[in-house]
Amino acid sequence: MRELRLLPLERRQIAQAYPLVQAIRPDVSLEAWRAYARRFPAQGGDCARSGIATVQDDSGVILGLFAYRVGTAPQHGTTLFVDHFVALDIISPTTVTAELADGMERIARCLGCHAVHTAVTCSENARCQDIIERLRAFGHRLESFQLCKPLPAPG
């Protein structure tokens, strides 16, 4: 049985993680992803206040990832905000989701957070529901959802 580990995304892995990003955000270019990923600290770890965490198998293949930052939510206080949650594994998506969910909670607890808010990005309703149900199995609940209105470039 393969071993999965939660590890920070290293600078040298930014391009390697891009296919996962493309799966949930096909409109994001590699250049845009690189610029986004480089905004986070080069070294993460369980107590970094922001970062990109990955789930990797024992051969270094990235099977899932999420970006996170600490902030404040009025109803919870100190909160871990998670974006770009993606778990892609045709063999065992539930196992990858479990490792991601456990990792989010470990990071949140290490940082003194009282809640984890996860923004799930998906374009197909069935796929969204599958991810939501997998996260519910790990104690997450649907509390809100996020809308987006793209704006024209300033100027």
What does this structure look like?
The chain is an alpha+beta fold. The protein has a single domain, classed as Gcn5-related N-acetyltransferase (GNAT) (Aminopeptidase). Helices cover 32% and strands 27% of the residues. It has 4 helices and 5 strands; from the N terminus they run E-H-H-E-E-E-H-E-H. It has helices at 14-24, 30-38, 93-110, 125-136; strands at residues 4-8, 50-57, 62-73, 77-87, 115-120. The protein has a 5-stranded mixed β-sheet with strand order 1-2-3-4-5. The longest helix is centred in the middle third of the chain and has 18 residues, at 93-110. The radius of gyration is 15 Å and the shape is globular. The termini are far apart. The model has no long low-confidence stretch (mean pLDDT 87).
Structural class by SSE content: alpha+beta
Number of alpha- plus pi-helical segments? 4
CATH topology: the name is: Aminopeptidase
Major sheet characteristics:
5 strands, mixed
Number of domains as seen in the coordinates? 1
